[in-house]
Structures are given as C-alpha cells and as structure tokens.
# Entry
Amino acid sequence: MKLTGAQIFIQALKDEGVDLIFGYPGGAILHVYDELYKHPEIRHVLVRHEQGAVHAADGYARVTCKPGVALVTSGPGATNTVTGLATALMDSIPMVVISGQVPLSMIGNDAFQEADIVGITRPCTKHNYLVKDVRDLQRIMKEAFHIARTGRPGPVLVDIPKDLQLHQAEYVPYDQVKVRSPRAVLQGHSGQIKKGWELLKEAKRPLLYVGGGAVLSQASDELKKFAYLTKIPVAMTLMGLGAFPGTDDLSLGMLGMHGTYYSNMSINECDVLFSVGARFDDRVTGKLSEFSKHSKKIHIDIDPANVGKSVAVDVPIVGDVKYVLGEMLKMAEAAPAFIQNYHQQIRPWWEQIRQWREKAPMGYQQGPKEIRAQYVIDMLYQMTKGEAIVTTDVGQHQMWAAQFYHFKEPHRWCTSGGLGTMGFGFPAAIGAQLAYPEKTVICISGDGSIQMNIQELATAVEWKTPVIIAILNNHFLGMVRQWQELFYENRYSEVDLNVQPDFVKLAEAYGAVGLRASVKDEVVPVIERALKVRDRPVVIDFVTTLEDNVYPMVPAGGAVSDIVLA
Amino acid sequence: MNHHENTHTISVLVENEFGVLARVSGMFAGRGFNIDALSVAPTPDPRVSRMTIITHGNALIIEQILKQLNRLIDVLKVIDVSSEACVRRELMLVKLRLNDKNKAELAKLADEAHGKIVDASDPRIQILEFVGEHQEMEGILKKLQPFEILEVVRTGNIAMQKGKNVLMPFPGEAVG
# Structure
C-alpha cells in the first residue's frame, strides 16, 4: 500500500498507540496537519507556544511512562523545542518531537523558516534524524519511539522536510526494530548483584540512596519490599521522590542541597551507600572529596557512563533497577534468619538516625497572618491526602514542594530536576491532566516561573483541564534572592518582581478561575474552592512571606558539615 | 584515581550516515574532551565507517570518553587499542623549496626515511610523501628543518591491532 509521508507519519503514531499529541502548526508541517485533520482519533492539543508543547508531552510521559509526542514546524517552531528537549534529556524522559523542515532542495539555502534543527538539537536529544527519503520514514519513526523508550529513556527528534511529506512510499506494518547500536544491558551481572548483597550484609550503617532511575524503571514494588524486609533507611533524590512512600518510617525524605538534615547526615556517616538509579549529581554530593567518605558504594545504573563518573564505586551494577533490585530481593528473602540478625545489626544506626531526626526535624512556624509558603504546600498536601499529581517550576517553591508534599507513589511528581527549567510546571501539568482527567493536578509555581509559560492558560481553558496553579507569590525571584542574601551580602541584583500582573484578573481574562489568599485564614478556603472546580483551570495567588529561605541548605560545593539549618 | 595523562588511540565503528562525525566531535567538544587527531573512512561494508581517534587524558577521562562514545546511537563498537600491540601509521606530505646545493642532500634524506617524491612538476619545488608512526614523522620533520618547508599535511595515526584481533563484527550484526 502506497502512502504519502504525511500518511505514514499518522500511521506510525497509530502503530505506537499514540492518541494524544501536543503541537503548533506552521508552513513546513502543513501537509502533516492536513492529514491530521482527517484523523480525529488522534487528539491534538494546540498549545500557545512550542515550548509548552514539549513540556506538556514531557509531563504526559512522566505520569504515564509512555513517550510524549510533540509536533512543530520548522525554524522558530523547532528552535522553541530546544529547552524542552534538554529538560527531557537531563531527566531521561521518553519523548518524540517531530519538526517540519523546509523542502529537501532548499535545505542549506537559508530558506524562510529554515534552521538546522538536527545540528542544534544533537547535544540535547538522545538521538535525532533528518529524513532524506520518504522510504526511510516508517523505519525512522519506529526507531525513534524505540530509542526514546528503551534503555535509559530520552527525547528523540525527527525532522521531516515539507516535500517529503507528500512523497509516496510503500507502507507495510512490521514489528521488529533493528538498531545496530549495542543494546542497554537490563539484566545486571549476577556476580555483581551477589557482591552488592554481600557488601550490604556486612553493613552496620547501610543507606538506600534512591534516584529517578527507580521511578523510570518502575521499580517501586521491588524497592518497597526490599526496604521493608531489610529495614534499611531510604533517602531519595529530588527525582526519586515517590519511588518509596515519603510517609513511611523508613523514609528519611529528600537528600542533597535542600534535603533533610537526617538524610544528609546519614549519607555522610553511612558505611555502605547503595545507589539505586541515582547518579551522584552535584546537588546531592556537594564537595566530592568530602562526600560520604566512610562508605563503600554500590551503584545500580542502566547507563554505564553514570558509573564512576564523579564518585568511585566499589560494586558497580550496570542494569535495570527493577531487575537488579528484584534479584537482590530474592537473595534477601532466601535468608530469613540472617534478616532477623540484620535488624539487630543496624539497630544502633537507626538510633543514631532517630537522634538526628530529633535534632532537626522538618517543620515550619505558621503565624496568625502572613502566609508561609511551606504552610500552603502542607495544606495542599493534607487537603489532597497526598494523592494529587504535583508539577513544579524551579526555585524555592520547588524545594518546598519537595520537602512538604509527601508522595506515597511514583509518577505523581513532575519537576525539572536536571536542567532546572523555569516554565516547565504548568504545561507539564496540562499534559498530566490530559492523561488523567479525573485526577487532581496541581502546578506549584512561583511568581517568576509561572510567567515563563503563562500563555498556556488558553490551552488549559480550551481543553477544560482543571489544573490548579498555586502561585507562591513572594514578589521576588526567591531562590536567586536567597543566594544573594546568603552569599552576596544582600545585594539584590535584578530579583525584584514587584511589577507583576494581577494574577486573579489575568486568570479571569483567560477564562480561568482566579483566587487569592493574602492571610493565613484564607488559605484553606481558597484551596477548598479550587478543588471543586472541574471544568477549567484555577489560578491561586498565595501572597506569601517576602524574604523566606529554603532550609536546610548545603551550600553549593560544600560538605554536609557545612549544612545551614535555619 | 590516576591523574597521569596519557595519549590514547581509540578505534570506533560507526554507522556510515551523514552527521556521524558531528555527533562524535560534538560529544568531545561538549564534554570538554580533546581530539588530538581523527581519521575516518568507510570500511568494506559501505554502511559502516571506521574512525581512529587520538586523544589524551587521565584514566577517568578516557573511561568517560569510551562510555560516552558507546552511548551514541550511531556508534557500533568502541575499542581503546592503546595498550594493545598495534600497527600505527600516519601519512605525511611535505612541500619544500629546493636550490641547486641541497637537492642531492634532500634526495638522500628522503631515501633514508623511505620517503617518495610524489610531485616535481616545478623543478624548484618537491612534495615528499612519508609513511610511518607519528613519532617517526616528528623525527623526519626535525631532519627537514634545514630545508625550506612550505607546507606540511598529516593524517594523524590510524591503527590496527596485531594478530588475529579485529573490530568487526560488532554486536547485533554478524559480518561474514
């Protein structure tokens, strides 16, 4: 059966089971949009800026574990996807972005809306393609989805010249994908897994250090069983939140720069550090020469390049977290007598951790009037029973959300951990909401971040997505201000956001619901009202303490001993 | 951790696709690794190209280079052949201006270094061709210093493991 490039594209989406895409049309992708018009079974969400499309696809992918798809035109349409691609690459999110390109014969001629998007996105995609022959399109689309979702997931871009969208080629469905590049190793080496378990068995002060890899590999069940059985304490990175219930006694919460005192002390003092899909990021390690000096280290990672990159590891295990942890769980389950002893063996360690917990528990003081951001997040947490999908932008609100919204399950927490992209949260929330229309989706944002993609209010109104945007409004670029206060002697250089829109009126102008809470007693009622709205987005402007800081804080490049508690 | 910097020779098989060189060189540039020399040409299998990359760094950096190369989808196989017995060869072309006095001397020098005169279309100009290991080329250039060198072009080393070891076949495909 002969199909045009545009038809092959649509067929390829169907073959992959894609029924929802995010995009923005333009000249070089018109043929594809014309074909899309004939296929209402593939829902297309018209965003208001291409960056919104990519972040929405990203949010969709984070909550569903399926690749998100975005469709854009050439030139500016394509370059607007760069931040979203880099965001997805840093957090290993499966995504396929398709861009139109100027006709083949015009490539390289500085044609209208031409950009070398394959060249531009080479370092911010897992892989990318310029399709030069329509006969390759079916194969490339298959490979793109395969590469995006397998091994360490990531974004893939496919650039399709305009004329090629009308060229015809034979289309025969097939299943097998042949990528000659070596496959990722999923089944970790059994000898290494055994070595890791033997090392853990000797530990008197073991610690599970859980990262985004545990979420991506959907290894929560294995992780929970392993931790419950062995009673090894669990600390999570920003990306690992939800992999293990933050409400459980075994959880030490988040570690790293703004992690809890007790998780940071634990990583500092442990004798065996077991990294489960975490990559020893600088926001976790701080000063490398001081990082977890007394511990032997076990590291599960699907990407060999992460192993030994910044921290030397004693037992590297290259493989899929779910598989490796599953194997280790079997070893633990086969030794019930040992496990009994083990609980005794690590009892003093838990006693030590208990003392650290008592010394510096996580908390905040909420006075009678001025709203503290932490209180808002605490109320959101309590009033949604910890079951909402939460997305964030980047800054103080992001860290407070990580500290005070305790996730019981994975795939409910969408935050740009690696790249730290302001403007990510709201479009990501739209993507997540469209994936799960019945769930409560909250975008926790700041008055700085939200303005970076606020145009998507129109998208959310059009699609009747009841995303709640909780703006923690301190009239500052809060995190930058905090650094300027602490490290630049209060020289507040360009962080004043006193000139800002009236977010309530702005929401109403878009057709959304706008609410405001200016004093403490208004917080719970506005959240109550917002939770009842199910047919449009709600913007809540929480006017909070102006100059509040995120604590604890391990200064960048510092050691755990440099931790500032308040 | 080994902080000693060494020169390494890395052989890489890649898909013979446009943009592959950019992916490889871009990875080096983006991560702050050095490329001292690089040569690339198709193999007898036209779908596959072979690169020889000369780089330097401590053990940690070289390990990262190998791993990061392996992450590229178009990269089929990577081997650091530095520690293995290899034949290494570089091709060098040298253009010189001659006079009546040193013509014979140059001919003698070229002969000793197994050089060939590959162009003498202008009686006062010669292009000499030399083949050998990188270090040998350095030595030859030193000896040529007394002459008037107009231009030098070098390919950088290519390398092949001695004995029966070969890079092909690569994982995922048996090459007969």
